[in-house]
Amino acid sequence: MYNYYAKIIGVYDGDTVTAVVDLGFLHSQEMKLRLYGIDTPELRGEEKEEGKKVRDILREMILDKEVELITYKDKQGKYGRYLATIMIDGVDVNQWLVANGHAKVYFP
Q1: For 27-33, which contacts have Cβ atoms below 8 Å and span 24 or more sequence positions?
Q2: What letter would DSSP give residue 45?
Q3: Among 47, 61, 86, 92, which has the highest number of CB atoms less than 10 A from its own CB?
Q4: What are phi and psi for residue 58, nearest 5 degrees?
């Protein structure tokens, strides 16, 4: 596992975000991240309204904020996004979404 600091600059849906990740030594990189171990309703199809609700909740929590990322060495999802747990103010956002009924536990 690796820990990084990042600023969240985009929230696509309840489990996909874009962040500027501080890689250290004055280097940063914009990256798409998939929230590790969870699945949220999609923005298309029958889950559309619930998907928008979860996306908006996540935006309120982390958009334009500094967070800590816990990543898993070279682990990527099927769409090439790195998998990460997001921490903000000591709260595990991934687990918070599950605990509050906004996401399901998901390990493909």
Answers
A1: 31/81, 31/82, 32/80, 32/81, 32/82, 33/69, 33/81, 33/82, 33/83, 33/84, 33/86
A2: G
A3: 86
A4: -65, -40
pTM: 0.90
- Give the pairing of strands 104-105 and 91-92: unpaired
Q: Domain 2-98 carries which CATH code?
A: 2.40.50.90
Residue 3 confidence (pLDDT): 95
Q: What's the chain's Rg over C-alpha atoms?
A: 13
What are 14-70's pLDDT values in tens digits? 999 999 999 999 999 999 999 999 999 999 999 999 999 999 999 999 999 999 999
Pairing of strands 104-105, 38-39: antiparallel
Q: Could you give phi then psi for residue 78, rounded to 5 degrees?
A: -65, -15
pLDDT of 74: 64
